[in-house]
Amino acid sequence: MRKILVTGGAGFIGSNFVRMALAEHPDCFVVNLDKLTYAGNLENLAGFENHSNHKFIKGDICDGSLIERIIDEFKIDSIINFAAETHVDRSITEPKIFIETNVAGTLTLLEAARDKKLNRFIQISTDEVYGALGPEGKFTENTPLSPNSPYSASKASADLLVRAFGHTWGVKYNITRCSNNYGPYQFPEKLIPLMLNNALNDKDLPVYGDGLQIRDWLYVYDHCTAVWKVLTETRPGEIYNIGGCNEKTNIDIVRLILNRLDKPESLIKHVTDRPGHDRRYAIDASKIIGQLKWRPSVSFEQGLNKTIEWYLASRKWLENVVSGDYQKYYDSMYKNR
């Protein structure tokens, strides 16, 4: 039986991966380690809390002794590191926590993977490490790293640490760099759930600048199946871009959401753009498509409909996660812009 330590497994992408792995791969056992910060939520694991092949542990990836105890107790053979501070806006106002979690936390996990001689370490990274693109072209795995925000700089630093541990100590690693994920259980600070939540409550929809920033959008389930293929079907040392082949402007997505919810476009409020906002990202996913025979199974239109339907059916979940700290943060970020 494959025994995996999934870090950040109560967050958005991590919880979707845990749910997919347990539902579709009965030959795997998942130890799920999460600190349960504001974006980590045990409700994201509803239905899988007591699964016989799932063990949840509340803890910090910076706690090296805890990581080693988990590896020894559960005979872990692989680590998949989803744990991260991820929101660019927060990294601009609070960069230190991004270095602590995304860099120092990854270092702690790598040291354990090295010392315990694990079979595989998979670093879940982002297309943002590449910087920004002009109107043409796409990021490939050979695009130089050129991060433009504290968030992307912390992820690029972690990626380089992973590579260094592979070169220096022979840690068997892979790095995946995904485009913008969307889907169920995403904390409503990111574009799609933020706009959904505000539109459902007839609140202003804050759109940075002119809203013409372009991102490639990837349904979270497709991301999870790609990571599984990297874990099980490729050799160590390979890096894979994972993209949805769906370039959309932010303003177009906001309008699609309003149209789907039958809400007026008068709710859109253009606010001052954030500092250093990258204009365009686009992923070339031809390597993983060609080598591992993976490709997105959900079109953007299908994925957006699935996402909206999930949030409409999960109003209680949404109410729970937007209370307290989130509301204060939202007000501080957008109220006076």
Layout: helices, strands, pairs:
Blueprint: E1 2-7, H1 12-24, E2 28-34, E3 54-58, H2 64-74, E4 78-81, H3 88-93, H4 95-115, E5 120-126, H5 150-169, E6 173-178, E7 180-182, H6 191-200, E8 205-208, E9 214-219, H7 220-233, E10 239-242, E11 247-249, H8 250-261, E12 268-271, H9 286-292, H10 300-313, H11 315-321, H12 325-334
Parallel strand pairs: 1-2, 1-4, 2-3, 4-5, 5-6, 6-10, 7-9, 8-12
Antiparallel strand pairs: 9-11
- In percent terms, what proportion of residues is strand? 15-25%
* Biggest sheet overview: 7 strands, parallel
Average pLDDT: 94
Are there runs of 5+ residues with pLDDT below 50, and where?
A: none
Please, how many helices?
12
- SSE-based structural type: alpha/beta
Provide a descriptive summary of the structure in words.
- With 337 residues, the protein is α/β, with parallel strands linked by helices.
- It has a domain at 2-182 and 219-242: NAD(P)-binding Rossmann-like Domain (Rossmann fold, 3-Layer(aba) Sandwich), CATH 3.40.50.
- 43% of the residues lie in helices and 18% in strands.
- It is built from 12 helices and 12 strands.
- The protein has a 7-stranded parallel sheet, with helices on both faces. Strands 7-9-11 form a 3-stranded mixed sheet. A two-stranded parallel sheet has the order 8-12.
- Strand 5, helix 5 and strand 6 form a beta-alpha-beta unit.
- Helix 1 packs across helix 7 and helix 2 packs across helix 4.
- It is globular, with a radius of gyration of 19 Å.
- The model has no long low-confidence stretch (mean pLDDT 94).
